[in-house]
Automatic annotation (TrEMBL):
Stretch list, region Disordered: 1-22
Protein name: Probable ribosomal RNA small subunit methyltransferase A
Organism: Haloplanus litoreus
Protein function: Specifically dimethylates two adjacent adenosines in the loop of a conserved hairpin near the 3'-end of 16S rRNA in the 30S particle. May play a critical role in biogenesis of 30S subunits.
Family statement drawn from the similarity comment of this UniProt entry: Belongs to the class I-like SAM-binding methyltransferase superfamily. rRNA adenine N(6)-methyltransferase family. RsmA subfamily.
Residues in Ribosomal RNA adenine methylase transferase N-terminal domain copies: 32-199
One GO MF term attached to the UniProt entry: RNA binding
HAMAP family: 16SrRNA_methyltr_A (MF_00607)
Subcellular location: Cytoplasm
């Protein structure tokens, strides 16, 4: 039977209690666990769902109940072995694959969606592996990170994280989650974020340059873009920042990074790339 395993019993059977030093805070609130898969967009393809950080499988169980196939990545060898045993039936039926390894290194499968209660220590790096896959995701983050990721242009929280995430997807905070929902409880509040992939108005050919360029401009978020482009050329790797400023729209150059939307950054990065951006930055 799937979708009904008690998180407390799973913890007991696995014989673990969670180790914060290993980013292990297990979700024990069954209502939150039950809701997570339902936050995927209605039209999401649930044929192959990726879960990063399987733990003792409380979420894996719910994903098996709501999708055809699940791949779970788990770095802790003991937990990966436990998942194989606990869900042996689903593994044998080809409905569950357990990948033991670091989610930052493993080859990710061609999943159609991801639902994950992420290890917070590496949540940013994992997110920027997932978003370029162009699949819908439901991800648990530290609340402050979630709010910065979903922030609207022009707000105090809007920054490079909002631009980078907003370039790939529409991002919404769908549920705040208190520390008491986890065992052991983390020191911070959490929140669930839904990302729905979008077709950006401007394609970015060199993603690394785009992310570096945005990061550089936000180091000078109170300056006009005109000054920020010039002052941060050494960070972004622009050969000829004056040429970029001259070629760009004058009104855009008079605005500040915090008021510029993701697509406008992408267009500016494309223009910068034509003027030597991305060749030698780092
Ligand atoms: C926050 S717990 C979530 C566990 C479970 N999904 C739940 O909801 O209770 C994060 C899990 O990710 C695992 N983990 C930590 N760092 C990881 C990494 N770099 N790659 C893969 N798994 C990782 C931890 O061992 C832990 O099981």
């Amino acid at each position: 039977m799937t979708g009904s395993r008690s998180p407390d019993r799973l913890l007991g059977r696995a014989g673990v209690s969670g180790n914060p030093d290993r980013d292990q805070h297990f979700l024990v609130d069954e209502r939150v666990l039950d809701r997570l898969p339902t936050y995927l967009p209605d039209d999401a393809d649930r044929s192959h769902v990726l879960e990063v950080g399987g733990g003792t499988g409380a979420l894996t169980d719910r994903l098996l109940a709501t999708s055809d196939r699940v791949t779970v990545v788990e770095r802790d060898p003991e937990l990966a072995a436990f998942l194989e045993t606990e869900f042996a039936e689903a593994v044998a039926a080809g409905r569950l694959t357990v990948l033991e390894g670091d989610a930052l290194d493993v080859d990710l499968p061609d999943a159609t969606a991801s639902v994950s209660n992420l290890p917070y220590g590496v949540s940013s790096e994992i997110t920027f592996r997932l978003l370029p896959l162009g699949i819908p995701t439901v991800l648990m983050f530290q609340r402050e990170f979630a709010e910065r990721m979903a922030a609207e242009t022009g707000t105090d929280e809007y920054g490079r994280l909002s631009v980078s995430a907003g370039h790939y997807a529409d991002v919404e905070v769908v549920e705040p989650v208190p520390p008491t929902a986890f065992s052991p409880p983390p020191a911070v509040d959490s929140a669930v974020v839904r990302t729905t992939p979008r077709d950006p108005d401007y394609e970015v050919e060199d993603e690394d340059f785009f992310l570096r360029f945005v990061k550089a401009l936000f180091t000078q978020r109170r300056k006009t873009l005109r000054n920020a482009v010039r002052n941060t050329a050494h960070i972004s790797g622009l050969d000829d920042p004056d040429a970029v400023v001259a070629a760009a729209d004058e009104t855009l150059m008079s605005r500040r990074a915090g008021d510029v939307a993701p697509d406008e950054f992408a267009a500016l990065a494309a223009l910068a790339a034509e003027h030597g951006g991305g060749r030698d930055g780092g």
